Amino acid sequence: MTYCIGINVNEGMIFASDSRTNAGLNDINKYSKMFNYAVGDRNLVIVTSGNLATSQAVFSSIKKDLESNTPERSLNTCNTIEEVANYVGALTVKHSSPHGINEEALQLGSSYIVGGQIKDQKSEILLVYPQGNYIRPSDTKPYLIIGEINYGKPILDRVLKPDISLGDAARCALISMDSTIKSDLRVGPPIDFVVYKKGLINPIYQNKFELEDQVYSSITNSWSESIIRAFESFPRFDWESK
Question: For the chain, what is the mean pLDDT?
Fold first, then answer.
């Protein structure tokens, strides 16, 4: 019941996540799945999919550690994005298996995309699995996605390259999200959306999109209209003229 995107191109980073947690005929629930932290020498974003109870507990622990005067570990004490991923991974294992490591519980846990930049280090995005381990994206595909990934992935594969402009990458992320929302009732607005430019701590753009938002609808409607025009321009089969 989630779709989350993390993009890391040469110009910066983009993160997007939906907010739907339940979609019955008469019962639609929403909950933000993005944790955004830009303080001091670091900007960090965490988006999540999977077991809501686990991810809520993880986000709660992150906040408590930040507020504590003597935390064992927190987003402030991590020196690299890898350390942030290890920290989040340890929390998700802790909260999904509170009575000891349980493989079945871990399989039903939560996944996370962790990304950002610390000091003068390079920006990174990492995918943290319910088991606590993590991976990086490939060199040629500068993105990670979690949740209901089937519908929004094709546009990302076709368009995203490391040297794409930050604006084009942002539009690609919104089209990917819109494609998923149109095809999967388990994914829905509002869409948490944040854009970071390389080397800057604070986001250059942040919004929570509803489907009727002018920026969102102008991009996604233009995409739909362009697809229809392209489809209508395809060469005809020989048998169509007979």
Answer: 90
Residue 112 parent element (H or E) = strand 110-118
Residues 127, 88 contacting (CB under 8 angstroms) = no
Over its C-alpha atoms, the chain yields an Rg (Å, rounded) of 19
The model carries a pTM of: 0.90
- What is the number of other CB atoms lying within 10 angstroms of the CB of residue 114? 27
Q: For the segment 113-148, what is each residue's pLDDT rounded down to a tens digit?
A: 999 999 889 999 999 999 899 999 988 899 999 999
- For residue 25, the model assigns a pLDDT of 43
- Give pLDDT tens digits for 54-88: 899 999 999 999 999 888 899 999 999 999 999 99
- Angle value at C-alpha 43, between 144 and 98, nearest 5 degrees: 65
Contact predicate 30/21, CB 8 Å = yes
Chain centroid to CA 111: 11
Q: Distances in Å between the alpha carbon of 118 and those of 56, 77, 206, 235?
A: 25, 11, 19, 51
